[in-house]
Specification:
The structure is a homodimer.
Chain A (H helix, E strand, L loop, with lengths): L2 H8 L3 H9 L7 E2 L5 E2 L2 H15 L4 H12 L5 H35 L9 H7 L23
Antiparallel strand pairs in A: 1-2
Helix pairs in contact in A: 1-3
Chain A binds a DNA duplex through helix 2.
Subcellular location (chains A, B): Cytoplasm
Pfam family, one (chains A, B): MerR-DNA-bind
Organism (chains A, B): Sphingobium lactosutens DS20
Chain lengths: 150, 150
DNA sequence: CTTGACCTTCCAATGATGGGAAGCCTCACA
DNA sequence: TGTGAGGCTTCCCATCATTGGAAGGTCAAG
């Protein structure tokens, strides 16, 4: 199976398949005499596994751990659960940060006349944040990667 | 005021101040004879404005629009409100996507024994997603940039 | 005058992804 | 058997916001 077919079957783009191979997330694919990569149905399963984990927001490093457990028939489900649980916490942190942003913005938007006059509490708050509108710890609020999927 | 002091006063790192200047988000700073950039309190206000908008999750392109409105004394608050409102929608989309991930994962985690046996519904679902656990539209779910803040 | 803290520019890396060019391979069709 | 389309290969570049570092100039205090 060529890379294009594997891509279509797995939902992972050919570009990304090569990238995952290059970064070591997946083993180097077999090659035909022509140099073309050759994928088995098992490989496609692995790619779908990765695709699915990405859809759930796992970072590539986490996916790597999950893949190792997937391949390990003597894994302990506790290890899988731990990874998933810690990912949940991470997601919840991000959600919390985003919710705080929304709350702040909604407060401001609801105070803005939205007419043709220049006075605007949103601008005012950006200039000089009012105490009530504070983001939590300006430090590390729920910030993080979530992929480019155009 | 040197760039380091402006950075400290505004909460925007010196690196980022130079970057914003380079990309045209902010005008080129005045220079002293030595070549050092020189910032006025007004410049620091602008930097704090940017910092604050970043904290609220605005993308740099949006910040650019906001800065233009900020500088425009004959702005219409409606324009500001529109930008803020559309940013709220964007944030809410992201939150929705993240919540769906959390829901799916929580369903799986709650079904996982988390012991030393290998059987694990999380792994199983990654292999072959069960219908109930679906992400919404595998397409463009709340995906987006949110900065690296280490 | 020396020293250390600051500033300058330039270059590189991050993570996940897409875009494109130059060149080889394959298959179907005439 | 030749040819063309389309797939594959590698390699390089761009994204976005941000950080890091190296090499060298400047400033202020001792």
């Amino acid at each position: 199976m060529n890379i294009g077919q594997a891509a279509k079957a797995s939902g992972v783009s050919a570009k990304m398949i090569r990238y995952y191979e290059q970064t070591g997330l997946i083993p180097k694919a077999d090659r035909r005499d022509s140099g073309y990569r050759d994928y088995s149905p098992g490989d496609v399963n692995m790619l779908r596994f990765i695709r699915r984990a990405r859809d759930l927001g796992f970072a590539v490093t986490e996916i790597n751990e999950l893949l190792n457990l997937w391949r390990d028939r003597s894994r302990h489900s506790a290890d899988v659960k731990r990874i998933a649980q810690s990912h949940i916490f991470e997601l919840q942190d991000r959600i919390k940060g985003l919710n705080q942003m929304v709350d702040t913005l909604q407060g401001l938007v609801s105070c803005c006349a939205g007419d043709d006059r220049p006075d605007c509490p949103i601008i005012a708050d950006l200039e000089e944040p009012s105490s009530g509108s504070a983001l939590p710890a300006p430090a590390s609020v729920g910030i993080g990667r979530l992929r480019h999927r155009p």
